[in-house]
């Protein structure tokens, strides 16, 4: 099962509003290992093997994020193999990048931040057969990562680190929301995801077609937090890749829930109840 291609609904790319586009481009190219796919003075698209996974947009008069807002907790870059994750771990360590890490049972993950404070996860999945499901919920944990095992896996390869592998995708996005119940209602009833895991009334994980999660959401910034202001750096939007027929069906449901849908040539845009922008792309 490929959880990042149709008919599954999955996250395609993430757009960030940035203050210093040159510094951010350099970080994502040299430290994260993305390739520059297209570049204009105020917009840079980055990704792997020609697929755009991240779009940086310089917005004039933008200010840094200082207060507690809804928006990005982290976006998560999924690499194909354990060996790939080990190579990236070595590369990040050699570049003096501060890292967090975790074994989530379903995956192994590294955590870091970009120069403007946006959270990034880089992870690899264990095989779905190794995931443990109970009553439609998948078991996830925050266990210590076997970093030594990752490094050893990388060292078995004769190939050095050469940036993000060709099969890299945007694995999931994790959002700060202002109200967990409202967000759950929107994503489940409005966008057709199902809850696959929860953390004590503080966080929810949602997926399509039994992935461990395409979307995470939490209220760790506080309940009732405001939407990220237009002129504040951070999450601009993210895309959901969705089948055309499903998008049409969901549009009717979203309309009936009172959600406005702005229709453009390449995408339809909606906002979740916390003000996070979502572009629905077929």
Automatic annotation (TrEMBL):
The keyword Metal-binding applies. Signal peptide: none annotated. It holds the Pfam family Glyoxalase. Keywords: Metal-binding, Oxidoreductase. Its EC number is 1.13.11.2. It is an enzyme of class 1 (oxidoreductase). This is Catechol 2,3-dioxygenase. It comes from Planomicrobium stackebrandtii.
């Amino acid at each position: 099962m490929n959880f990042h291609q149709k008919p599954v609904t999955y996250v395609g790319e993430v757009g960030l509003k940035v203050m210093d586009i040159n510094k951010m481009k350099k970080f994502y190219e040299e430290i994260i290992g993305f390739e520059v796919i297209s570049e204009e003075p105020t917009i840079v698209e980055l990704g792997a093997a020609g697929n755009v996974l991240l779009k940086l947009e310089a917005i004039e008069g933008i200010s840094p994020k200082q207060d507690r807002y809804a928006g990005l907790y982290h976006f998560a870059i999924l690499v194909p193999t354990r060996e790939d994750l080990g190579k990236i771990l070595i590369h990040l360590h050699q570049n003096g990048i501060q890292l967090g890490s975790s074994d989530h049972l379903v995956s192994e993950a590294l955590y870091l931040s970009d120069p403007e404070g946006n959270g990034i996860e880089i992870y690899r999945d264990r095989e779905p057969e190794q995931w443990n499901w109970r009553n439609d919920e998948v078991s996830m944990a925050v266990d210590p990562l076997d970093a030594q095992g990752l490094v050893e896996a990388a060292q078995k390869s004769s190939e050095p680190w050469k940036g993000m592998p060709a099969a890299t995708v945007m694995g999931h996005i994790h959002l700060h929301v202002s109200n967990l119940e409202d967000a759950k209602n929107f994503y489940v009833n409005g966008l057709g995801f199902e809850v696959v895991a929860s953390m004590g009334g503080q966080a929810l994980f949602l997926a399509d077609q039994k992935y461990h999660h395409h979307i995470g959401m939490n209220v760790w910034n506080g309940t009732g937090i405001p939407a990220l202001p237009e002129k504040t750096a951070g999450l601009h939007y993210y895309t959901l890749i969705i089948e055309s027929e499903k998008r049409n069906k969901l549009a009717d449901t979203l309309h009936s829930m009172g959600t406005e849908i702005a229709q453009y040539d390449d995408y339809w845009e909606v906002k979740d109840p916390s003000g996070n922008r979502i572009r629905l792309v077929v």
